[in-house]
Specification:
The protein is an alpha+beta fold and 343 residues long. The protein contains eight helices and ten strands. It folds into two domains: 215 residues, Butyryl-CoA Dehydrogenase, subunit A, domain 3; 126 residues, Butyryl-CoA Dehydrogenase, subunit A, domain 2.
């Protein structure tokens, strides 16, 4: 694996992370051509604090308690639970009021960086009488306030930690409340809207890497006395792969541009993620086909691209959820109303 030599220092005052949205997604595509895990690690680090992006205000002033995550520790986004995946509003982790804060108890699943996180953005129910997302609040917890109970063994993204964590009576003060009480779902949706563009960029990077490998192999491999790139069957595969990657890339750029300029981008981010993830899976599959038997071995990287691509159709909202998001925005726009929230 090569190490990408990329510096991101474009127009922000945030310590160590000065990148505008479009530049950040270009960075994601470039790094994910080498290893898709770059995106998983970096996405959490970019999006966890969300202090330099337009969003509803926090509880009180932005203090060291909020900003110490900048560049000092690895972050984790802890929303999903064993019984609340796509139905994130059904989460059961409870934050019970105590003094000037809350005591949090519960468990979280599929937490990226969970085994190494120094700070977690964690969602818990502060209003047990209110079912669904309206009773949920967002908190910043330190890594030593949670216990890792399991490290997942995954199909792909092997260098990314994915863990289950347990919270047993962790106390947090009011300064650790992000946004307002019972407004945690707003924080989660804000993060996911941007995160989906990041996953789209990750998928484009994976697809581009697989395409580059397939094209390079086709130009070198010879059968029946000629390069396999000269066969129409291979040319059609490469043409379709290139076309689909370009389409996914431009949908991703559009969503990133809208986000950067403060425009609504929920549906556009969902479209980008849906198409880019589908493209990544299809292109990596076709790359293996171009390489034939070699594609199925670890001698070439395309089998890893194939394994890494699948998760882009699942995390940050499954492809089925993206279709729901898109459809509800289409219908709401036609009827002149605001689309309901879908994780």
């Amino acid at each position: 694996m090569t190490t990408p030599k990329i510096a991101i220092i474009i127009g922000s005052t945030r310590p160590g992370r000065s990148a505008d949205t479009v530049a950040r997604w270009v960075y994601d595509v470039a790094t994910d051509r080498d290893d898709a895990t770059f995106e998983v690690l970096d996405l959490i680090d970019f999006d966890l604090p969300m202090l330099d992006e337009p969003m509803p205000p926090m509880s009180g002033e932005v203090t060291h308690e909020h900003t110490h995550v900048w560049g000092a520790v690895i972050g984790a986004f802890a929303l999903t639970e064993p019984d609340s995946g796509s139905d994130a509003g059904a989460l059961r982790t409870a934050a019970v009021a105590e003094g000037d804060g809350w005591r949090i108890t519960g468990s979280k699943q599929w937490i990226t960086n969970g085994s190494h996180a120094g700070t977690l953005l964690l969602f818990a129910r502060t209003d047990p009488a209110t079912e669904g997302p309206r009773g949920v609040s967002a908190f910043l917890l330190d890594g030593d306030q949670v216990e890792v109970t399991r490290e997942e063994e995954k199909l792909g993204l092997h260098s990314s930690s994915t863990a289950d964590v347990r919270i047993e009576g962790a106390y947090v003060g009011r300064e650790r409340l992000l946004h307002e009480e019972r407004k945690g779902f707003t924080v989660a949706m804000h993060a996911l809207d941007g995160g989906r563009i990041g996953i789209a960029a990750q998928a484009v990077g994976i697809a581009q890497a697989a395409f580059d490998a397939a094209r390079g192999y086709a130009l070198e491999r010879r059968q029946f006395g000629t390069r396999i790139a000269d066969f129409q069957a291979i040319q059609f595969k490469l043409a379709d792969m290139s076309m689909e990657i370009d389409a996914a890339r431009w949908l991703t750029y559009r969503a990133a541009w809208l986000k950067q300029h403060g425009h609504p981008h929920t549906a556009e981010g969902a479209k980008a993620k849906l198409l880019a993830s589908r493209t990544a899976v299809r292109v990596t599959q076709e790359a293996i086909q171009v390489l034939g038997g070699y594609g199925y071995t670890r001698e070439f990287p395309v089998e890893r691209y194939y394994r890494d691509a699948k998760i882009t159709e699942i995390y940050e909202g499954t492809s089925e959820i993206q279709r729901l998001v898109i459809a509800r925005h289409i219908l709401a726009q036609h009827e002149g109303r605001v689309a309901p929230t879908v994780v």
